[in-house]
Amino acid sequence: SSGEIAMRTRGNRGYAVRQASAEAPTPNDRGGGAGLADAGLAANDAAMSRRMGPLLALVGRADGRFAAQANLRYPAATIRRKAEEGNRQADAVALFAGLADVRLGASWAQAAEAEQWLSSRRGKPPVAVWSCAAAHEKPFLDGKLDDALWRDAAVVPLAAGAGGELRLAHDGEYLYVAGLFPTAVDGAGTDAVDSAGGGVERSAIRRGDRRGDGRDADLTDRDHLELSIDIDRDYVTSFTLAVDAAGSTFDRCERDATWNPQWFAATRRESNQWSVEAAIPLAELTRSPPPPGTIWAVAARRFQPGVGIQSATAETSPQVGPGAFGWLQWESPGTRGDN
Q1: In whole angstroms, how far apart are CA 70 and each of 1, 156, 317, 321?
Q2: CA torsion through residues 216, 22, 330, 162, sign
Q3: Which of 117, 193, 232, 255 has its CA 20 to 30 A from that of 129?
Q4: Where would I find the H helices in the chain?
Q5: What is the pLDDT of residues 226-272, one digit of tens each?
């Protein structure tokens, strides 16, 4: 069911990527044959999904205990959902009905209820839904968060705001992320204060495309933001990208730390806060730009030494699970979703 693993094994067969500060992309960036390639890969995905469903059912009949595990049953339902996409998700209620059972785990049940909610979109969604605003121009990555797109982007609070806040936007070429994180006045958790105690304003750019520039750093004991992106909402695999206050980065595809996408981050530090702006090429995450209305599952968490995990959801377990994810809905120009 994993779109992340598929992207990892196939590599980037998508569209061209340029610097985040470059001029707006032209309509022909992807080349004439890209659409046909996408169609062929999508057809292969659907065929594989149809084969995998019966195979998993056979495994389930052979070992009922194995089949009862949510981390098997949920991806199996996701496989079927992906194979039937285009049928208005008419079968989503039936596909996930058996998983909306707290005996499988409250977070798995909530995720299943959210998939059922998508069929009607009536009432309040069971999970947090955040808007990914459409940007009309690219930001200048300097960590200042003063670009126009951030004024239109919905706020995603961490730990009800105590841990800071995020904003997300896109332009069809990049997923943009901005974060602002308060710290203690003495700069605890960062090195943002000099020996004389005065505020220090610094910035760092990390392109994440070669070793020796802070890539795949050990951020365990550092104040850092971790973003996990699950493009198909199976809650078993995801892309994870992390950056700390100094601009050092870490990225992995599930447990595979050899996944080395090219992405861009700038950090800025002051005496009582630090901020980050990042641009993640969509070609590193998916074969084609998500159309408006697409929903990805996203977990946004800040790890702050001496404080703990500050999450955009109520889930604060060190291991990211279904409860750590909210939904990111892709908006078209001129629309704005509320969180």
Answers
A1: 14, 28, 18, 12
A2: positive
A3: 255
A4: 3-10, 34-62, 64-67, 70-83, 92-97, 106-120, 148-152
A5: 999 999 999 999 999 999 999 999 999 988 988 999 999 999 999 99
User: Is the pLDDT confidence value at 95 over 60?
Assistant: yes
Hey, what amino acid is at 193?
V
Report which DSSP code applies to 104: G
Residue labelled with tokens 């599952």: 297
* Position 141, amino acid: L
**Among 50-54, 197-201, 311-315, which is the least confidently predicted range?**
197-201
Rounded (to 5) percent helix, strand, coil in the chain: 25, 25, 45
Q: What is the dihedral of CA 34, 10, 76, 231, to 10 degrees?
A: -60
Round to whole Å and give the CA distance between 36 and 49: 20
Query: At how many degrees (to 10) do helices 106-120 and 70-83 cross?
Result: 20
For residue 43, name the pLDDT band (cuts at 50, 70, 90): low
Cα separation, 138 vs 176, in Å, equals 9
| Rounded-to-integer distance, Cα 225 and Cα 222, Å | 10
Cβ-contact 167, 153 below 8 angstroms: yes
Measured between alpha carbons, how far is 276 from 261 in angstroms, rounded to an integer?
18
User: What distance in Å separates the CA atoms of residue 232 and residue 238, rounded to the nearest whole number?
Assistant: 9
Closest among 180, 127, 188, 184 to 158, alpha carbons compared: 180
**Helical residues (DSSP H) of 137-243, grouped into ranges:** 148-152
Residues in the chain: 339
Amino acid found at 112: A
Opening angle at CA 252, ends 250 and 256, nearest 5: 135
